[in-house]
Amino acid sequence: MKKLSCSSILLFLSFLIATAQSNKELKSVFESSNVSLFPRPFYYEGSSVTKLLSSEEQMLQQAQSKNVNNDILIHANNAGYYCLLSGDLIQAIKYFLLASNTYTNDDSKALLIKAHLAFANDIGCRDSQALRLYSELLESATFSKLNLKLQAYINGLAGVIYLQERDSARAIKVLNISEKQLLAGKLFKSLADLSEREGEIYLAFNKYKEALVKYNQQLKYTDASGAAIANRNIGMVYFKKGEYERAETYFRKSLSLNKNDLVEKLLKDTYLKIVTVSSFNHDFDKADRYHELYRALKKVETVSNETPRQKAEKDKIISLLSAQSADQVNVLTRQEYELSQQLTALDIERQNKEKALEELTLAEAQKKLKELELEKVSSEKLRQEAELTKKELQLNKQKEFRNILLFVAGIVVVGLFFLYSRYRLKKQSLTELNKAHEELRLAHDKLKQTQDQLIQSEKMASLGQLTAGIAHEIQNPLNFVTNFSATTQELIQEYKEDKDATILDDISSNLDRIQHHGQRVSAIVKGMLLHSRSNSSEREKVSFNQLVEDSLSLAYHGKRSTDADFHCNIIKQFSKDTTISVMTQDVRRVLINLFNNAFYAVMEKEKLHKKNGDAATVSYLPQIVVTTKSDNDFVELIVSDNGTGIPDEVKDKIFNPFFTSKPTGEGTGLGLSVSYDIIKQHGGKIHAESIFGDGTSFHIYLPLNHSTKVNNNAISKDIQSA
User: Fold this and answer.
1) Which of 43, 406, 587, 606 is deepest in the core (most CB within 10 A)?
2) Looking at the domain that runs over 540-721, which CATH code has it been given?
3) Is the full-model pTM beyond 0.85?
4) What are the tens digits of pLDDT across the range 66-85?
């Protein structure tokens, strides 16, 4: 007896050892054939896992008591796996966390446990925690070493959460990778499930086009049993879009593949929607037809107990269809509200008619039949009269058409004769016009050539006058240089003789003056060279204030060279300096021309006062004010003088070519015209304001960005503020 019990114990121990060895395998939800990972809610349709969970929990306790890390990791993972299958997500997360925190040098095991933890958080609607773990897995250096199936699932699950979070860029990237990996692994069922999940998200966001793409992809890769669900999903998209007849087609396809109470309910709702819309559009025949279909489907309605999975599917469908677009909700709510009364009235009327028909006697039926025969005879008579009337109308129309045709033919003949005569006249006129145009073109070319010659002559005359003035101005600093050089030579000789240290200070001072006046000469020569340089069509960036300063200096020296007694008070009111891109020589020419005109005006007014012997001559001081302003879009130059001003009758002509208010021989009349063209070429504006006898102000606006033009509104606002 004792021997038998020992053998029994040995057999039991060997069984436990075998069981323990078999349970040391790492369970993976991603390898289970009974688990569908992508659709929500998560389902497991296997046998009971209670005993298996209890066994793993006992072995986990033993491993913890012995502190064997590898066994703790395996049994904690397996216990979490069975909790996951039984629907205990909180306990599953706890076991997966325990396994994840247990050290292992096997990277593939660590990644699989982290994937389990992410998946448990995912189906538990803890999206932020799940997404963080999925991201860590995707960014792991050893992720590429996992098998293709696990990579495909992790990419797909992460992509689904990205899609829910509306992070389309990341979602599309990882979902495309997942789909390619699922195709490579021939995991068509999982690819169909992933497509369904993506379609549900797009449908919830009212992105119908994308949802249809994904549901059709589901239909492509699913098996025969899944085709019914795919057709149902496509029907839901059209139902939500309000295309109820197309929705009806797909719901019928789904029912033909698999009888389902949920799809029947959707089909009934579709019939009611079609009845509602058709009645609202006064298509009562169509409304009656679909109402009969609805009643027929309602008669065969069966009542069955819902399983938890069916209830979850029903809740999911209700959730997807409840988030309708705002326009559809408004239209259907209004239609259903207005038609609820109509549908009720129609049902009552139909029932009353049926009851009345049942109560009719045979005599009444015969009477009704005779009345119908009389109505038929009357209808036939009316039809014949209508045909006769129709024939008469056709004859009248034919006569009218013939008359209209003859009238139109006459008009066409007259029109053709008129057009031919007009063609001959136009041809003759065109010949004369071409001849006159050629003569005008030759005259214009000759005039343009003459104008170019006059412009060049004026430029050369201006350049000669300016050169003479510059030479006069150079003479003064050169005299200083010569005199201080001679003095410095004498001081050096004295220093050699007396060795007096104070003489060195005088020499240093003289050299500073020589350098100063030498720089003056250099600046004057540089300005003269710039002014005389040939025009360039290339823009360059320059300081606007410096360009105005140099041009003013050149103009003033040029005026002093021709009239040594000329003096003028120049007031500069420069704003903050601004860099502007212009054709420098062209703009310099415009500025010098404006300054010369201002100097001429104040000098003429001074001569006029001296000639009249006016007492005001003593108080009159020639003066010009040069002001620069800058804005976000343009810079402005204002040249104001207190000279003679411009008469009102010539103000509109000052920018015309060859018009001048100066005496004969003192102006060509091209200065302001050329200036106007140059400023316009730069996208700017120029205009003048003057009071005859008091002075003139010229305003120039140049855009900071040469690709745009100066805004006239901005100029008007600036003028008003001035």
Assistant:
1) 587
2) 3.30.565.10
3) no
4) 898 889 999 999 998 888 88
